[in-house]
Amino acid sequence: MVRDHIRVNVIAPGFVDTGMTSELSDQGRRKVMSEIPLGRAGTPEEIAKGVAFLVFDGTYMTGSILTIDGGWSTR
């Protein structure tokens, strides 16, 4: 709650190269990549940078969704 100085924000990651997504078939991976405007998967490091932003620089943010998905959700 704002009055208690508790900020609540959300990270909404898109398709990220992880052990779980590596299990996807080549055909499935190509389909997903064709839907992402940047044409590639994100990295765990890119998601971590978003988290770091919210923790260290987003001190005046609350109630926000930080979407890190290469434009996938805007398609």
* C-alpha-based Rg, rounded: 15 Å
Structural class based on helices, strands and sheet pairing: alpha+beta
N-to-C SSE series? EHHE
The CA-CA distance between the termini, in Å, is 33 Å
How would you describe the oligomerization state of the chains in this entry? single chain
The number of helices is 2
Mean pLDDT: 93
Q: How large is the share of residues in beta strands?
A: 5-15%
Based on CA inertia axes, which overall geometry fits? elongated
The tally of strands reads: 2
Taking strands numbered 1, 2, ... along the chain, how are they ordered across the largest sheet?
A: 1-2
Structure description:
The protein has 75 residues and is an alpha+beta fold. Helices cover 32% and strands 11% of the residues. It has two helices and two strands. A two-stranded parallel sheet has the order 1-2. The longest helix has 14 residues. The chain starts with 9 loop residues before the first strand and ends in a 7-residue tail after the last strand.
